[in-house]
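PROTOCOL LOG
Step 1. Enter all chains and additional molecules of the complex.
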Amino acid sequence: QSVLTQPPSASGTPGQRVTISCSGSSSNIGSNYVFWYQQLPGTAPKLLIYRNNQRPSGVPDRFSGSKSGTSASLAISGLRSEDEADYYCAAWADSLSGYVFGAGTKVTVL
Amino acid sequence: QEQLVQSGSELKKPGASVKVSCKASGYTFTSYAMNWVRQAPGQGLEWMGWSNSNTGNPTYAQGFTGRFVFSLDTSGNTAYLQISSLKAEDTAVYYCARSYCGGDCANYYYYGMDLWGQGTTVTVSS
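Step 2. Run joint prediction.
Step 3. Record the structure below.
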């Protein structure tokens, strides 16, 4: 059972907006940055969002992150077929002195 | 360009050991910490721990103490993960991933894992 809670799946049609939630606690999301990773099928994860809402160079602005209290969310606007992937949230957990991940959310483009 | 290139797939018998390498290029190796992440078949990501590139000091997550050893070769810009006394449940893809250290790595977890290796599949089977 993961420390961070994500829905197992999310879906939308091309062009729609999809939001993925990530729920934690005061010792992880509540006191540290949230990161989001995208894992396309058969490939290594890729950093999508860092420090709650920052996009690395090359990440489209269709992807956005936010954080409030002990929860965070990732939004994908203008959904495209190439966005079909698993998405993981992560945060540092003070109580564990280590990173914790959510179980991942599989996004399907209908 | 910046990249992490990992060693190839391994097939091992229970009780054996394996050493996975992760060679960095295109950036200053000692400016970044190296994390290790495990992904069991069909499962999510699990952080195993990290190596402080300034001190070489490893830190292991709960569940990854004893049989797991992280090491660094700063002259060869390579990080290593060694697993001993392999069990069937160690079957997984193992990733290395860097995090910016910004000096003494005191706040390395501010930066996330911004560059990943392609993964090394370790299969443990008799």
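Step 4. Note key features.
The first strand of chain A starts at residue 9 and ends at 12.
The CA atoms of residues 39 and 99 of chain A lie 17 Å apart.
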